[in-house]
DNA sequence: TGTACATCAGTGAACGCGCGTTCACTGATGTAC
DNA sequence: TGTACATCAGTGAACGCGCGTTCACTGATGTAC
């Protein structure tokens, strides 16, 4: 890591990385621009060469998060093909994996309070990620008898909610709320039971 | 509302109420002690007659939340009796109802970052609420063949996670993340499918 | 019922602090000739 | 290759602000006699 005296080299990304670490450590509201600057080895004022301000920096972190998230989801979906079922469960697993591997991004995206409609770019990235899950749900719903098939967007929402709940309650080191089971087991079994409820996997599997 | 000149009457509760409103409006970290004092019509210093400080005030709000929550859960459970199934689904519904009706408490409890083990009182209140759901799950699990019965604490965790996820993603006015369906429908159908997966309700019900 | 006094719940001024943001500046880099 | 100069990324001092917390105080309440 060559430390150039005056010019940083890639301050923009360094600031985003610092922000992510701080968001992870201090929570979405505990994060401060000044501290991020300090951690990147730079004066707070320097931040304004690259971002409009505090909010803009968080939004950028969230944007990168949505992009990584979308990539992971897409990759999981592709890898699960051609089976609609395995593609679907893979995306569910990818959700949890993302939350575990990129906690800073996750918080910036879902807990920082920044609106996903802040910029068209951000909205697009969020939509892309969401669309993968919905696509997987649509594929899968083809296997349910049409007359009793719930809308695909509904069960994509169910799985999303279950995943999110597992992450929030049991995957993060929620202070004093120890998980009774490993988060990934919890999600895996939960999705399994749910899919059985849809008649998509056999009762004794 | 008789405004006594100097003495407030019930400042302690007024401060908690103010805190709850502010937490709801500004988020868990955006809440400030000074503002809560101001809203209660009192100097910031007055807060220290009733609480040890900022954290203590939030913890008290959370405590009251857990107590209300526990009551609601217990009431729902009792009312659903003697059917294990209806008692169980009623507690699920109560979760969502609580989040909708007491958003400030909900945030103080689940998003403020205060540890549930901060005081024995708080831990007890949290445990009580949780135990109701677990009891309902245990009752229900009696109806599943013993050999393929998942631990009751596991499916209580599933339902809790699903409920929490629905609340976080679709019930709160998540900026720019409009729900495709009403939150209560989402939870109701989700739990329905899940219970079908456990073989607890018939496939064509 | 009236007075003296202890108790207690509030005041208001002050503190040190870190925040986000602005500004004129300066040092480093890169390009033109 | 060397010099002049424009561009740009950083500095550092300053700002006004609201925060949580402390302190000596004072006004209101309630009790004893």
Textual characterization of the structure:
The structure is a homodimer of 205-residue chains. By secondary structure, chain A is mainly α. Chain A has two domains: 1-51, Arc Repressor Mutant, subunit A, CATH 1.10.10.60; 55-197, Tetracycline Repressor, domain 2 (Orthogonal Bundle), CATH 1.10.357. Chain A contains eight helices and no strands. Chain A has helices spanning 11-26, 33-39, 54-80, 84-101, 103-110, 120-141, 152-171, 183-197. In chain A, helix 4 runs parallel beside helix 7 (152-171). The longest helix of chain A is centred in the N-terminal third of the chain and has 27 residues, at 54-80. In chain A, 43% of the residues are buried. At the A-B interface, helix 7 and helix 8 of A face helix 7 and helix 8 of B. Chain A binds a DNA duplex (33 and 33 nucleotides) through helix 2. Chains A, B: It comes from Roseobacter sinensis. Chains A, B: Residues 32-51 bind DNA. Chains A, B: InterPro entries: Homeodomain-like_sf (IPR009057), HTH-type_TetR-like_transc_reg (IPR050109), HTH_TetR (IPR001647), MT1864/Rv1816-like_C (IPR025996), Tet_transcr_reg_TetR-rel_C_sf (IPR036271). Chains A, B: It holds the Pfam family TetR_C_33. Chains A, B: This is TetR/AcrR family transcriptional regulator.
């Amino acid at each position: 890591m060559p430390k150039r005296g005056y010019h940083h080299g890639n301050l923009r990304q360094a600031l985003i990385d610092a922000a992510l670490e701080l968001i992870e450590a201090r929570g979405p509201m505990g994060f401060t621009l000044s501290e991020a600057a300090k951690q990147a080895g730079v004066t707070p004022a320097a931040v304004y060469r690259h971002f409009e301000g505090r909010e803009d920096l968080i939004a950028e972190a969230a944007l990168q998060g949505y992009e990584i998230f979308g990539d992971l989801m897409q990759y999981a979906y592709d890898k699960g093909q051609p089976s609609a079922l395995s593609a679907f469960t893979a995306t569910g697993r990818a959700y949890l994996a993302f939350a575990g591997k990129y906690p800073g991004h996750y918080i910036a995206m879902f807990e920082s309070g920044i609106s996903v409609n802040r910029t068209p770019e951000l909205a697009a990235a969020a939509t892309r990620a969401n669309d993968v899950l919905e696509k997987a749900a649509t594929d899968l719903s083809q296997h349910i008898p049409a007359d009793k098939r719930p809308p695909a967007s509904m069960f994509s929402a169910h799985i999303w909610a279950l995943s999110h709940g597992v992450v929030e309650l049991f995957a993060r080191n929620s202070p004093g709320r120890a998980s009774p089971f490993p988060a990934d087991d919890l999600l895996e079994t939960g999705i399994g039971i749910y899919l059985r409820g849809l008649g998509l996997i056999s009762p004794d599997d």
